[in-house]
Specification:
The chain is α+β, with helices and mostly antiparallel strands. It has 2 domains: about 30 residues; about 160 residues, no CATH class. Strands 1, 2, 3, 4, 5, 6, 7, 8 and 9 form a 9-stranded antiparallel beta sheet that branches. Strand 2 and strand 3 form a beta hairpin. The longest helix is centred in the N-terminal third of the chain and has 15 residues.
Length: about 210
């Protein structure tokens, strides 16, 4: 299962209010204030926002880390929209350790498997980049997921209009057939959906 996750990845409050001498809120008021606080922070984030949080954690694992993939995910309670997602995964490889790890960033917790913030997957054997799964540098990752989504949705406008219920997923990766890493934006599924490739360095749609 972990190997499949790695391969597919390679082509994301508790509010405390207290004041002396003030009346305590009722149980309903507590529930409402907690729900409001959670809603205030449970918003989707862009790929770059999540990536850098995971990158910092990954760098403490391996100084020679190589980004391999970044992928948006869905999580109950947060609606993905316009290139932002409530949860992202990033895959990093380390040549010195001959390992790769999948990191997850989520804006909320979804027990028992998903925690808020960054979580680190178990190490997996990695023998380095291949022609179909190259690493990329952070400088090549210039275009954020929001901009990639905007460019892709313009290309897919007709299809989106006739399939308004289909949510988009975004995957950032690199392969030898591309000049730079690309965003793969997919509405629906690979079998019957619509996909667009966007250059992650220039933001242009790849025909």
């Amino acid at each position: 299962m972990r190997s499949n996750l790695l391969m597919s990845s390679v082509l994301l409050v508790t509010l405390l209010l207290s004041a002396c001498g003030t009346p305590k809120p009722t149980g309903d008021a507590k529930s409402e204030s907690t729900a409001a606080a959670t809603a205030a922070v449970s918003v989707p984030v862009s790929g770059k926002t999540a990536f850098w949080e995971m990158y910092k954690s990954a760098h403490s694992w391996a100084a020679d880390l190589a980004p391999l993939a970044l992928e948006s995910k869905s999580i109950p309670g947060v609606k993905n929209q316009a290139g932002k997602a409530g949860m992202w995964t990033a895959t990093f490889g380390s040549r010195s350790q001959r390992q790769a790890r999948v990191f997850t960033y989520s804006v909320i917790a979804n027990p028992p498997d998903v925690y808020k913030g960054v979580t680190v997957g178990n190490p997996l054997t990695w023998n380095g980049p291949t022609s179909t799964a190259l690493s990329f540098t952070t400088s090549d990752f210039a275009v954020d997921s929001e901009a990639a989504y905007t460019a892709a949705s313009a290309q897919a406008a007709v299809w989106i209009k006739s399939h308004p219920d289909k949510e988009a997923s975004l995957t950032l990766g690199n392969a030898a057939r591309f000049k730079e890493p690309v965003w793969y934006v997919l509405w629906g599924d690979k079998k019957s959906g619509y996909s667009v490739l966007v250059d992650a360095k220039t933001g242009s749609v790849i025909k």
